[in-house]
Write a structure and sequence with these properties.
This protein is α+β, with helices and mostly antiparallel strands. It is built from 14 helices and five strands. Strands 1-2-3-5-4 form a five-stranded mixed barrel. The two termini are 43 Å apart. The structure holds fe (ii) ion (FE2) (2 copies).
């Protein structure tokens, strides 16, 4: 790649710019144009966003040398197509850490990471687990959460919808706990069941998604989904804990099966006791808050409103630049109180 264009990131790409960047190849599809000429349709990402790219020349030769889940160096023209930015790629090369570190490449550039400190989030999760008095739930959390700490700290909570970053899964659990523990007190619920239910509701995601760098649905994820995978993990763990009470086992399994709340959201059951209902609402709220904040932060033009191309399908109000600065400062001052 020529040196005269500085490296940039997806977030800053503007229509008609010529750009140079290190990006992660998420998907590649070799297709034919109407004239029968092969071209490559690809999806690229970095820690600031995701973008579609097209390779019109030598697509058949390039396709085998670039691997999905691997970093690539890209030079391209940013174009606008149906209101979305996309890349017309003029050069693409596979990248490895040894050869490209001196040329500005690092994994940090391309893998999206939660903005929160994952060590602090984990400490909060660990502290919450220590509050659990029920010995069977404690054993279950030991088996499925504590023993999976390394994976939980790096896993995303979903592929495209919410908390899609490295550490996003942990952030989702910690935020739900931070709201759920006081809510359990407020509504006089079984606090141990709320803590365990929150921590286990999405445990199937560890098997549903491959995690970074490529972060795709696994075969198990595509065939079974995280609700069934989570149920199986919990069922198996419970059968290894002697004398686990039957009703408690059914309740924790019900929380997993009902947490998505509605049949049309792949939930085989609807929440049928208060702890399960609380976990469903906390899950829904935390996911939607993350989706709205992300959708707003990804639109960079100067307008007051986003486009309707987001989960909510309405224009979302964007904070003004100065209030954004104020919010960031506020956020920093508040961070001591966050999990
Ligand atoms: Fe879920
Ligand atoms: Fe969730």
């Amino acid at each position: 790649m020529k040196r005269n264009i500085p490296l940039s990131t997806i977030r800053t790409f503007k229509a008609n710019d010529e750009v140079r960047a290190y990006l992660l190849l998420k998907e590649k599809h070799l297709r034919l144009t109407r004239d029968g000429k092969p071209y490559l349709d690809i999806i690229l990402s970095d820690r600031s966003g995701t973008i579609i790219g097209k390779i019109w020349e030598h697509a058949g030769d390039i396709e085998p040398i670039i691997d999905t889940g691997s970093p690539v160096g890209v030079r391209a023209i940013v174009e606008e197509f149906r209101g979305q930015r996309q890349l017309n790629i003029t050069r693409i090369v596979p990248v490895n850490e040894e050869d490209f570190a001196s040329k500005g490449f690092s994994w940090e550039l391309i893998l999206p990471h939660t903005e929160q400190n994952t060590d602090k989030l984990w400490k909060f999760v660990d502290k919450s687990i220590k509050k659990v008095n029920n010995p069977w739930l404690m054993s279950l959390l030991q088996l499925l959460i504590i023993e999976n700490q390394a994976r939980i700290m790096k896993h995303p909570a979903s592929l495209r919808l919410h908390h899609t970053t490295i550490g996003g899964f942990l952030e989702h659990l910690a935020y739900m706990l931070n709201l759920g523990i006081p809510a359990a007190k407020q509504y006089a619920l079984d606090r141990d069941l709320v803590i365990a239910g929150i921590l286990l509701h999405d445990i199937g995601k560890l098997e549903e998604l491959s995690g970074y760098p490529n972060n795709l649905y696994t075969n198990e994820g595509n065939f079974l989904g995280h609700v069934v995978l989570g149920y199986n993990l919990v069922d198996k763990a419970i059968s290894g804990i002697p004398d686990f009470p039957d009703e408690l086992a059914l309740k924790i399994k019900h929380i997993i099966l009902s947490h998505q709340g509605q049949y049309e959201y792949q939930s085989p059951k609807k929440p049928s006791f208060p702890e399960a209902l609380l976990i469903h609402y906390l899950d829904e709220m935390d996911a939607r808050m993350d989706m709205m904040k992300t959708a707003i932060s990804r639109e960079l033009d100067d307008g007051d409103w986003t486009s309707v191309k987001n989960y909510f399908r309405i224009p979302l109000y964007k904070p003004k630049k100065d209030s954004e600065d104020r919010d960031t400062k506020q956020h920093k001052t508040d961070s001591g109180k966050k999990p």
